[in-house]
Design goal:
Structural class: mainly alpha
Strand content: under 5%
Shape: elongated
Helix content: 55-70%
Order of helices and strands: HHHH
Length: about 80
């Protein structure tokens, strides 16, 4: 997503976004969702369990994080385009 943001400068030099700005959006998105309690301990205890549903939960969480990050980047970029 950062590469897409950075390519906007080809449209107009005003649309320049830095990696630190994207990193701040990324970190804010992670903080908004927060860490689940004892997630590291759960990963270790479930690492050998096949079919326990953790893969589906992880995939759903990653999908949610990606969707929310996409929306955050869109909001950030369109704030400066308008």
């Amino acid at each position: 997503m950062f590469l897409l943001m950075s390519q906007l400068s080809a449209v107009n030099h005003m649309y320049q976004f830095s990696l630190p700005a994207f990193s701040a959006l990324f970190k804010a998105n992670l903080a908004r969702h927060g860490q689940r309690p004892n997630s590291a301990a759960k990963r270790l205890s479930h690492s050998n369990n096949v079919g326990d549903g953790s893969d589906e939960k992880t995939a759903a969480r990653v999908d949610q994080l990606c969707g929310d990050l996409t929306l955050a980047v869109f909001d950030y970029v369109t704030r400066y385009i308008a």
